[in-house]
Amino acid sequence: MEFSGDELAGVVDLFGALSRAELGEALAELAYKQGEEYDPGAFDSEIAAAVEGYHLVELDAEVASTDEAVLVPGPGAFPTVPAGGPDLTHILDIEGRELDRATAGEAVLDRFRADAAAAVDSGDPGRVDRLLDVSYELEAWADVELSAERDLLDRVS
């Protein structure tokens, strides 16, 4: 069973934030509900792709004030709860978490700036264009200013 980045964000959004292991467990449960057997680790590449595409944002434990790093729905996501998803809050023994968006935004801003610099250095037009889109989404998501980073990206697009 495969899940889109928006579906991964939808599952995470049910709880506010999930560790990678918790998200893998939730996805395995959804697959099982669809009659498929899955190991929670089978979704690692989908989770990594969602983080890469800013559908999910990973916050370290210190930033999130949690025991371990957690994932939150990111600025590139339109969270969509997959079939059977609402049942997860009753099936899994995971407490909901609330994270401060401003703090999360500052953490994502650092990552975005590093990604933008790497995209400019690589000259990859596809990545540059995607980051230009993310810059607008990130500004709305976290109330940050990215005009300087957008100018840098615009110069190579």
CATH topology of the largest domain: Arc Repressor Mutant, subunit A
Rg is 16 Å
Gross geometry: globular
Distance between the termini: 36 Å
Q: Which percent range describes the beta-strand content?
A: 5-15%
Number of domains: 2
Search tags:
globular; 5% strand; mainly alpha; 2 domains; 8 helices; two-stranded antiparallel sheet; 157 residues; Arc Repressor Mutant, subunit A
What's a concise summary of this model?
The chain has 157 residues and is mainly alpha-helical.
Strand-helix topology:
Blueprint lengths: L4 H11 L4 H14 L10 H9 L3 E4 L1 H4 L5 E4 L14 H4 L9 H22 L2 H18 L4 H10 L1
Antiparallel strand pairs: 1-2
Helix pairs in contact: 1-3, 6-7, 6-8, 7-8
Description:
The protein has 157 residues and is mainly alpha-helical. It has 2 domains: 5-91, Arc Repressor Mutant, subunit A, CATH 1.10.10; 101-152, no CATH class. Helices cover 59% and strands 5% of the residues. The chain has helices at residues 5-15, 20-33, 44-52, 61-64, 88-91, 101-122, 125-142, 147-156; strands at residues 56-59, 70-73. It has a two-stranded antiparallel sheet. The longest helix has 22 residues, at 101-122. It is globular.
